[in-house]
Design a protein that fits this description.
Transferase(Phosphotransferase), domain 1; 4-stranded antiparallel sheet; 11 strands; 4 helices; 27% helix; 133 residues
């Protein structure tokens, strides 16, 4: 990953990227999903470029920070972030999508630590049957 001008760029090889991932992720718009801004494909070089806005922290690192651990409302903040993760997952479920790589490192926390967002859709998958019905 490379960071520049408030943007982060992930550059995977094309064989490591599902075609549907690019087409689906770029259309996902929800406050708890990291938006994909652009995804140019460079076929002669066999890679693509996922462009997203930079997020300061992931959930794993956020809950280990001294600033977080000393907050009297740390548990309430964690509950809020987890609720937001569930909202993002519900949004995906309603579109028959599965994240398939949910872990604390893939939950990104906004600059002001107010919002948790699902990121890294490398393993995004379309469900073949109705989820949760």
């Amino acid at each position: 990953m490379q960071r520049k001008n408030g943007l982060v760029v992930k550059i995977p090889h094309l064989e490591d990227t599902r075609e549907g991932k690019k087409k689906i992720w770029i259309r996902l718009r929800h406050e708890n999903i990291v938006p994909l801004l652009r995804c140019p494909v460079f076929r002669p070089l066999n890679f693509c470029c996922f462009e997203m806005r930079v997020n300061k922290l992931d959930l794993f690192n956020a809950v280990q920070q001294e600033e977080y651990l000393e907050r009297p409302d740390a548990l309430e903040q964690l509950k809020t972030w987890l609720f937001q993760v569930f909202c993002g997952l519900d949004f995906l479920r309603n579109r028959q999508l599965c994240h398939m790589d949910l872990k604390s490192e893939n939950v990104l926390i906004s600059k002001r630590s107010t919002r948790a967002m699902l990121g890294d859709f490398s393993f995004l998958s379309q469900a073949t049957s109705r989820i949760g019905q």
